[in-house]
């Protein structure tokens, strides 16, 4: 779609808001432009917004299950921690005779930048953005402009689970709709807040021009993962373990084990006592004089005495003497006291291999080596992971992060260009590279990706 602003300027449609604002001078009217495919509403989008999942409740359904699976919680924490590293650092690109180097800047050398960081709690905001991005593949930072639109004066993070893209109009998504009660009984469409949104494909200059033209003073640029076959909401790779049911398998195992332990017999011994034992002990005439209550009291006393001597450390190394009797009728030998141990069949590792397989599937889809969670390599000899395994796993994980950084650090880049900060500044998320103590007494070094 193409919308005319003036004789030389046109808005070219894209997947989320305009993908470009192009100005054609009289001598450049034949300059080619990028294609702009239209986004059509899904058949399930019956309201003013694009449903996120079948019931428009995908984030909540996902995270409710994640919160019950320790491996998923730990793996997600590893992803977010590795992504954020030691926090945002600002570097300046310095050209030397041989190459370009990155030199970290101290706050006093960039007062306008670090004043902005302090005023907006920039580090906290970025930390939350990173977690949204790792968990759901999309984050929603909102930028606030000065009255004249010349400066970005603030940026905040909207909780991703509260945000939905507006249904496409004329092939474009123009707004993000914010509501804290999606799919809840308290939901009221009157509480919907619409905020204009722009694609990351747009340059800061294009967004700035459009905001000035339309008088827009706040907007959202969704930090969104790569769309492959999706139209609106991204599909996060590690969600495959949620969609395929592996998380359900892992969740089911503790429920089954709990039910088994609750329903199984917890008796350790079965004790058989022949009535002739008491006759032998107290004598026939004396035993027959006892009433039923007294006889039962003597039986209980014997059982309690045996139980006290068999349980705990009291039974260690002790012996129990039990007489034999002749059956009065058959003459067969009868044991006065016989003790049988009851086997605890449910105290084994039943179903644990299924849980282990599910945990492996979750971590593999996340790209998190089990060694980082102390699980070691499945099938390996060291079940907890050696120090070398952990170091190499962390190094490999961090080496894969630059592709993610270019998206989350777009927030800094947008503000930098908009506010006219030094163009040689580069924001990065440096990370800690674990090493051996013989190479560094601290066991770690800082690595700038």
Question: What do you see in this structure?
Answer:
By secondary structure, the protein is of the alpha+beta class. It folds into 2 domains: 39-252 and 378-447, no CATH class; 265-312 and 319-343, no CATH class. The protein has helices at residues 58-66, 70-84, 111-120, 122-136, 204-214, 240-243, 246-263, 275-282, 284-289, 292-310, 352-366, 387-399, 402-408, 410-419; strands spanning 2-4, 9-13, 18-23, 89-95, 100-104, 138-145, 152-158, 163-165, 175-178, 193-196, 218-220, 223-224, 269-273, 324-326, 333-335, 337-341, 425-428, 431-434, 444-447. A hairpin with a 6-residue loop joins strand 6 (138-145) and strand 7 (152-158). Helix 2 (70-84) crosses helix 4 and helix 7 (246-263) runs antiparallel to helix 11.
What are the salient characteristics of this protein?
single chain; 449 residues; alpha+beta; 2 domains; 4-stranded antiparallel beta sheet; 3-stranded antiparallel beta sheet; 36% helix
Extended strand count: 19
Main sheet record: 4 strands, antiparallel
Q: Helicity, in percent?
A: 25-40%
Distance between the termini: 39 Å
- Number of H- or I-type helical stretches: 14
Shape: elongated
Find the structural class using helix and strand composition: alpha+beta
Fraction in beta strands? 15-25%
Number of domains: 2
Residue windows where pLDDT falls under 50 for at least 5 positions:
377-382
Mean pLDDT score: 83
Rg calc: 35 Å
């Amino acid at each position: 779609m193409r919308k005319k602003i003036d004789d030389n300027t046109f808005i070219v449609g894209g997947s989320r808001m305009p993908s470009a604002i192009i100005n054609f001078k009289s001598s450049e009217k034949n300059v080619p432009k990028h294609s702009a495919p239209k986004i059509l509403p899904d058949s399930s989008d019956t309201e003013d917004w694009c449903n996120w999942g079948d019931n428009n409740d995908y984030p909540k359904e996902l995270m409710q299950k994640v919160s019950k699976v320790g491996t998923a919680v730990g793996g997600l924490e590893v992803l977010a921690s590795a992504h954020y590293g030691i926090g945002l650092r600002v570097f300046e690109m310095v050209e030397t005779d041989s190459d370009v180097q990155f030199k970290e800047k101290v706050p006093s050398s960039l007062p306008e930048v670090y004043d902005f960081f302090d005023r907006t709690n920039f580090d906290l905001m970025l930390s939350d953005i990173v977690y949204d991005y790792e968990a759901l593949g999309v984050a929603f930072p909102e930028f606030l402009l000065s009255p004249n639109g010349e400066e970005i004066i603030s940026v905040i993070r909207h909780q991703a689970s509260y945000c939905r893209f507006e249904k496409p109009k004329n092939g474009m998504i123009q707004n993000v709709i914010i509501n804290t009660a999606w799919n809840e009984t308290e939901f009221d469409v009157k509480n919907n807040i619409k905020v204009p949104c722009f694609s990351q494909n747009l340059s800061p200059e294009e967004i700035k021009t459009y905001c000035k033209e339309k008088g827009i003073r706040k907007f959202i640029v969704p930090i969104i993962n790569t769309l492959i076959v999706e139209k609106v909401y991204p599909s996060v790779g590690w969600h495959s373990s949620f969609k395929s049911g592996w998380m359900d398998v892992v969740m089911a195992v503790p429920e089954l084990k709990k039910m088994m332990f609750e329903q199984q017999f917890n008796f350790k011994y079965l004790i058989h006592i022949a009535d002739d034992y008491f006759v032998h002990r107290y004598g026939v005439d004396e035993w027959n004089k006892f009433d039923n209550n007294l006889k039962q009291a003597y039986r209980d006393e014997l059982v309690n005495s045996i139980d006290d001597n068999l349980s705990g450390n009291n039974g260690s190394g002790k012996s129990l003497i039990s007489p034999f009797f002749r059956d009065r009728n058959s003459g067969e030998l009868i044991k006065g006291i016989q003790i049988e141990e009851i086997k605890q069949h449910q105290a084994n590792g039943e179903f644990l291999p299924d849980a282990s397989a599910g945990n492996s599937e979750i971590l593999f889809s996340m790209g998190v080596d089990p060694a980082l969670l102390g699980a070691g390599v499945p099938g390996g000899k060291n079940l907890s992971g050696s120090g070398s395994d952990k170091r190499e796993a962390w190094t490999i994980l961090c080496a894969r992060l630059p592709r993610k950084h270019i998206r989350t650090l777009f927030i800094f880049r947008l503000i930098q260009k908009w506010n006219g900060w030094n163009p040689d500044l580069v924001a990065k998320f440096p990370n800690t590279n674990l090493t051996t103590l013989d190479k560094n007494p601290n066991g770690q070094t800082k690595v700038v990706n």
